[in-house]
Every structure is written in structure tokens, then in C-alpha cells.
Amino acid sequence: MKKRGKNINLYLIDGEVKGRLKCTLANWTGLIFKIPRTRLDITRDRVELKQSGIYFLFGSEEDSDKDSVYIGQAGIRANGEGLLYRINEHNKDATKDYWTEAVAVTTSNNSFGPTEISYLEHRIVQLAKDANRYEVKNGNNPNIGNVTEEKQSELEDFLDSAKIVMGAMGYKIFEKVVDEDDKTDNELIFTYKVKNLIAKGKRTSEGFVLLKGSSLSREISKSVSVKVKTLREKNKDDINGNFITINDILFKSPSAAASFVSGNSVSGTLAWKTMNGDTLGDIINKE
């Protein structure tokens, strides 16, 4: 069934795209704020951020091939403070110097209690780890809490809308690089065979995905970058003497994906072929 369109309202609080954002969705009680770390001090008076909710700390680290995120919850304290107060505590934590912007999720009617935020924090950490887009800095998955089936259904509906809004804001933290259903459609899958290696991949709107279970060459060229070598080590397993990918990996181009498989420079438009033998280049030329 075709999905319906969504009406998202994006408000530039500071009148500029690099500033603070407030985002809402039609017929949804949720509110999502993006706050650059450098603008926490001028956000003190936002009443909505004194409420309970879930927050994300987004950033990156030099030695990681992924962006990083820490996910937490904040309840209303005795001093009347909530989300922003908790985020500011992290701002003063020297061990969390990687993050550059915070995202806070709350409601327009201040309806989150301890049960709701515990459940949402648990589910969000779980979904973020499953999507494998970000390096999730949380150690253990938070406790799910004790929710009724009615409340669970209500919170899952809330979360579905939050995923849409955060995705529209540019945070694809919940989105896997390729849908599971697409992996079973052979007409959408490309294969790269070289010597005894068989790798499978798929084009997406973001680039080219090397699918989990693809073979990798044991030998790699000396010219391969340290970043690619690190990416290989994090995403392969040695099974019966063969290197096999253990995750779906997104590349900016089919050539980058093919080169990752072979360990040296390869033209992706020639290497990747359909089940009928057509090259990716052939397919592109027909489009």
C-alpha cells in the first residue's frame, strides 16, 4: 500500500539553518528540538525543555568510521528542571567531548512520566543499535520498565512519528542502510564475482550497499587507506578461512564497494552484474 505524505513543520528558532530547530508533525503531540552545543546557554528559558523526555548527543570521533550518539532520558527534578538541565550536565562532563549538538524529544502536553521515558529510552537504544548507523555510546540497553500493552501500543505510535521527524531533520539513526525485504528481491540485487569471491550489493538513494554475507579478498593493496582497513576489521569474520562481511555496509559509490571486496581499485559499473549478466553500467545507460 502506498504510504501517505506527511506535513512536518520546521521552525528555525534563530532564523538560520545552523542554529536551533524546533520540529513538529501534524496531529502529533511530540516536540523535537535540535540544539547546537554552543547554544545551550541561550536556551535556558525554553519551558518545553524543562519537561521530561529523551535526548540524543550527536557527534563524531577521529578514530571512528561512524558518527557517534549517546541516548539518555531526563525526568523533571525537584528543582523543576528536566531535559535541558540533564543535557547541560553532559556539557560539563570532560569524558563526553565528542558531541556537537543535542536533540531533545518531548511532548506539547508534558505527558511523559517515568514509565514512558524508560520505555522509549530502551526502545530507542535498541533500534539505534539494530540500524547500525551510529556508534551508540550507551554501554548497556536501558531497562524497559513495566508498561501495559495499551501503553506500549501508544508509545510505539509516538515512536513511529518521532522516527519520521528525526529522519526529516537529517538523523537517520533508526533507518537501516537497506530494507530486509529488498535483500530477497533478486532483480534488485547485483553480484560481483572475482576468483572464488562472491559479493552481493544493492543500489539505494544514498549510494551502494555491500550486503551482509559477502566474501572479501584476504589480500589487499598497499595503497588501501587505514580507514578502509579499519572498516574491514570491524565488519568481517573469518569463516573456514574465508573473510565474510557481518554487516550491511553503505558506500558512496559502487566502485568503492567493489574495491572494498577485491582489495584493489575496481570499476563498479563493470564489476557489479545482475542475475541476467547485465552490468550496472548497462542498467544505468538504459535508465
UniProtKB/TrEMBL annotation:
Pfam families per record:
DUF4357
Return the PROSITE patterns for the record.
GIY_YIG
Q: Which domain of life is it from?
A: Bacteria
Domain (GIY-YIG) spans 50-136
User: What name has this protein been given in UniProt?
Assistant: GIY-YIG nuclease family protein
